[in-house]
């Protein structure tokens, strides 16, 4: 098989190339990696990952506007990945106590961690508060109350985002849609649920509401759904500032 045939079968990214009919990744022959580590084998291109991190920070103008870009730990997370993210000045999303503990063991700055998840256990919430997670993304009333109680025990005021269900039907598979009104995630715009969640967050002594968050789904490649979500979220921000003056 020649180089042109390889190009018809798979797209090459980052340091990937074909030499002498063999796939090379990061200067290593795939066959040599299999001989050393066995198969199946997942190989990550460090140079490619770093370039993606830098591109996201560049195009979101992080340096100029103090914007943040976070890596989703659920995609892949181990100690070495956390160290790479730290070196690239990235933030980190985690969705479990295990991911949070991995970040902690890697000496990742926990103030740059956002703790997501719609079914956090009390132990996970306590671990996050104890270790000093930067922000919890609160998904429901029960979690908010539990977080407030645990933060009170540790004499802390915990920063949070509220996860909002924006009512956006992203054009992706129904199993990975998360933004529609009947989603199991977040506070939905029905029966004043969002307004009640904001009131609750403001009135709890050990909670500090610093922002809102939404997620509309995975594998969404068109821009229309994102544009709709931005409009919904910005309208809500204006309403929050007008009514609650925060």
Describe this structure in words.
The chain has 246 residues and is an alpha/beta fold. Helix content is 43%, strand content 15%. It folds into two domains: 1-43, no CATH class; 55-244, Alanine racemase (TIM Barrel, Alpha-Beta Barrel), CATH 3.20.20.10. It has helices at residues 3-9, 30-37, 46-59, 62-65, 79-87, 97-105, 122-131, 141-153, 193-203, 224-244, and strands at residues 17-19, 22-25, 28-29, 70-72, 91-94, 113-115, 135-138, 158-163, 207-213. The strands form two sheets. A six-stranded parallel β-sheet has the order 4-5-6-7-8-9. It is globular and about 65 Å long. Mean pLDDT is 88; it is low at 172-180.
Which radius of gyration do the C-alpha atoms yield?
21 Å
**Percentage of residues in strands:** 5-15%
Structural class: alpha/beta
On the 0-100 scale, what is the average pLDDT?
88
Identify the CATH class of the largest domain. Answer: Alpha Beta
């Amino acid at each position: 098989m020649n180089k042109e045939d390889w190009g018809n079968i798979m797209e090459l990214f980052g340091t990937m190339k074909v030499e002498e009919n063999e796939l090379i990744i990061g200067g290593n022959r795939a066959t040599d990696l299999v001989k050393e580590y066995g198969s199946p084998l997942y190989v990550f291109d460090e140079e490619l990952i770093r370039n993606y991190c830098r591109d996201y920070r560049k195009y979101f103008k992080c340096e100029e506007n103090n914007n943040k870009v976070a890596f989703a730990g659920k995609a892949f997370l181990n100690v070495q990945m956390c160290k790479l993210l730290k070196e690239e000045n990235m933030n980190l999303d985690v969705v479990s106590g295990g991911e949070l503990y991995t970040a902690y063991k890697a000496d990742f700055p926990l103030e740059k961690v956002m703790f997501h998840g719609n079914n956090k256990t009390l132990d996970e919430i306590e671990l996050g508060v104890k270790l000093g997670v930067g922000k919890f993304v609160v998904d429901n009333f029960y979690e908010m109350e539990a977080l407030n109680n645990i933060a009170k025990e540790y004499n802390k005021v915990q920063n949070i985002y509220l996860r909002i269900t924006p009512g956006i039907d992203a054009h992706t598979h129904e199993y990975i849609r998360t933004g529609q009104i009947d989603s199991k995630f977040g506070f939905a715009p029905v029966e004043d649920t969002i307004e009640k969640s904001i009131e609750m967050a403001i009135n709890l002594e050990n909670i500090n509401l610093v922002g809102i968050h939404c997620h509309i789904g995975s594998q969404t490649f068109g821009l229309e759904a994102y544009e709709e979500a931005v409009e919904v979220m910005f309208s809500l921000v204006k309403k929050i500032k007008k009514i609650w003056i925060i």
